[in-house]
Amino acid sequence: MELDTVYEHRPGRTVTETDNVLFTTLTMNTQPLHLDQAESEQLAPFHDRLVNSMFTLSTLVGLSVAQLTQGTIMANLGFSEATFPHPVRHGDTIYAETVVANKRESRSHPNAGIVTFAHTARNQRGEIVAEATRTTLVRKQP
């Protein structure tokens, strides 16, 4: 992984209503905004159910795994920032890209390093639907 390199993660992932309802109920999120079409139609400004933002975040990170961390990650250390500038709706396709923002040797694990990723998700129209900064502990050798 090289600093400041943009890694584009393909293919994208088209989000279905089933994805949203299943994730939302599995995680005990009872917000009508994700589950209740009739009530959501009354809620401004979107007037529709929206995809759970935690599903969007999980998908954003998941899209990066095969290219960046498969077989090397030891731990997610944290997210310092996550934003959702545009909503994701049923039928939208999420595409992801990642920039390696920082990397250094681990002080406590001599066989590992600390890597910070800047992840971005866009929908099929190119609108940013999620951005997240994530710090990980990764093995130096797979």
From TrEMBL:
It comes from the Bacteria. InterPro entries: HotDog_dom_sf (IPR029069), MaoC-like_dom (IPR002539), MCH/BMMD (IPR052342). CDD domains: FkbR2. Residues 3-118 form the MaoC-like domain. The keyword Cell inner membrane does not apply. Keywords: Plasmid. Pfam families: MaoC_dehydratas. Coiled coil: none annotated. The keyword GTP-binding does not apply. Belongs to the enoyl-CoA hydratase/isomerase family. This is MaoC family dehydratase. The lineage of its organism: Bacteria, Bacillati, Actinomycetota, Actinomycetes, Mycobacteriales.
